Fold this sequence. Notes:
14 strands; six-stranded parallel beta sheet; 43% helix
Amino acid sequence: xxxxxxxxxxxxxxxxxxxxxxxxxxxxxxxxxxxxxxxxxxxxxxxxxxxxxxxxxxxxxxxxxxxxxxxxxxxxxxxxxxxxxxxxxxxxxxxxxxxxxxxxxxxxxxxxxxxxxxxxxxxxxxxxxxxxxxxxxxxxxxxxxxxxxxxxxxxxxxxxxxxxxxxxxxxxxxxxxxxxxxxxxxxxxxxxxxxxxxxxxxxxxxxxxxxxxxxxxxxxxxxxxxxxxxxxxxxxxxxxxxxxxxxxxxxxxxxxxxxxxxxxxxxxxxxxxxxxxxxxxxxxxxxxxxxxxxxxxxxxxxxxxxxxxxxxxxxxxxxxxxxxxxxxxxxxxxxxxxxxxxxxxxxxxxxxxxxxxxxxxxxxxxxxxxxxxxxxxxxxxxxxxxxxxxxxxxxxxxxxxxxxxxxxxxxxxxxxxxxxxxxxxxxxxxxxx
Length: 433
């Protein structure tokens, strides 16, 4: 099948490469010429395990191409996926200007029946608005489908190739059949396609992310209480997670969630609630608790070293909002490091993949970037572990201690065994333990 994917960010690039890998001919369209040229050369602008090889192999097989010519791409495709960004506007709502601009361009380029698929995360009612916009700009028949993505950064390729479910929100039998045909190769062992109306599909994406964020904030609130009463949040987590009604995912206490999805989607859901006169008090609390968690972590540092951190050096392990990505959007590390800098501290940081991102966009000329994790600890008052990369799980504690000015670890991800750290001579400060 001939397909067009508009937008070459995390969602668009992964979707385009994976759809091409199943034998489709996919044109990925973007208006960023420099980015397109790099993609044509095989240079992937984001770090996502497996994506590099997938893009290169499908380009070589002539199944995947990159272009800025939306008109030609639409004319030569039966299905057009909209995968552009929907960032927050100043009020916290999803900015849909990119979606609407692309929809209008698609309408003006249509030469026959098309299925337009909203792959971008959009509020309830967006497909309806897109449909009205397209109808006003074309005489050709079409259908608009909602097909939300559920990709975890760091595992996005596997998530697309082996999805736990594919949600198709469609009010058209013809469009539904086409979408089922597209996804059939991904679901050979089991039919995990869930069909529903368009508005329910749009809501499912926000509801799913908000529920996962709720689990994180709930566990963090419990962990904070554990510290007060002398309980161990790790034991509590294990006790909870063995209940099959609860499960063991998203129950790890820490410094909160970040990234491009949870913070943005929760704000958008709150905004939708406001628009329809629905207060959403639980979702608002999830958001507030997540912000508070970063403040409480900084307080652990100032409780130990005082509010005035002038001249003190802190080593930081981890800048990305989660492992296996170079994405720092809404990363807890940004908030925490900036708070340390405000108090006069000096920060030496190391991250396996996100240091270039940090230097370009977030903490340029503010901190020192180290060649490796141990270099970040030289003469440091303490280590702050902010992202749970695998390579940080089993470090050489004796070497760490020899490099640091004082053997103190603030573990924002509860990676280490408190008893072992105590035996090694470290002061170990974590979350809820």
